[in-house]
UniProtKB/TrEMBL annotation:
Pfam families: GerE (PF00196), Response_reg (PF00072)
Residue positions, PTM 4-aspartylphosphate: 62
Taxonomic lineage: Bacteria, Pseudomonadati, Pseudomonadota, Betaproteobacteria, Burkholderiales
Name of the protein described by the UniProt record: Response regulator transcription factor
SMART domains, per the entry: HTH_LUXR, REC
Response regulatory domain: residues covered: 11-127
Presence of keyword Ligase: no
Length: 215
């Protein structure tokens, strides 16, 4: 039985670039008493526009989306509308992603494979206490921190690594940065040496894990 005392509906804007995933999450949310999905976005830019227009109570967003990603959208929403609470719903559980999300303005982080009851639990917790981290994420955050990418590489090496992870060849990187192809190759060799990685695929996985590029 519902409480006889009326409670305000929690208005949610949901963002995920996969229609099927977004529809599934919305279906679960419609079963939560007192929660209403007022709009859906497929990317970060659309999310920011909808939040600015609708001023919801809560944003639930994925991180990896085309164009403006979830992290950038969270930062922009926080800057413009700090009263809106933001909960990340992601398949990525690395500490780097969580810390980036929180630093940008997220107040909670939930895994996409979490049981349905945790979806409601996360919303109630974020609205009541201001934070929620799923158990697996909380456990990750308690573990000793790995060195950040900036701890391991120079600014120039980070710049080159991002371009490598985007699939660019040495000649393209050289053109973009105003360097010679030979200089780019030397930087790449030093990056691999510092990180103890032996191929481009491993460098790309490292860049994604450290949040240097979108998954």
């Amino acid at each position: 039985m519902k409480n006889s005392v009326a409670t305000a509906t929690i208005r949610v804007v949901l963002a995920d670039d996969h229609d099927l995933v977004r529809s599934g999450i919305k279906a679960l949310l419609t079963m939560v008493d007192g929660v209403e999905v007022v709009a859906e976005a497929r990317d970060g830019r659309e999310l920011v526009t909808l939040v600015e227009s609708l001023r919801p109570d809560l944003v639930m967003t994925d991180i990896s989306m085309p164009g403006m990603d979830g992290i950038a959208a969270i930062a922009e929403i926080r800057a413009r509308m700090p009263e809106v609470r933001m909960l990340v719903l992601s398949m990525y559980d690395t500490v780097d992603f969580v810390k980036r999300a929180v630093a940008s303005g997220a107040c909670g982080y939930l895994m996409k494979d979490a049981p349905p009851f945790e979806l409601e639990q996360s919303i109630r917790s974020v609205m009541a206490t201001g934070t929620y981290f799923s158990p697996v994420i909380a456990q990750r955050l308690l573990q000793p921190s790995e060195p950040s990418a900036s701890d391991e590489l120079t600014d120039r090496q980070l710049e080159i690594l991002k371009l490598i992870a985007q699939g660019k060849a040495s000649k393209e990187i050289a053109f973009d940065l105003g360097l010679s192809s030979k200089t780019v190759d030397v930087h790449r060799a030093r990056i691999m040496e510092r990180l103890k990685l032996n191929d481009i695929a491993s460098l790309t996985r490292y860049a994604v894990r450290k949040g240097l590029v979108n998954p």
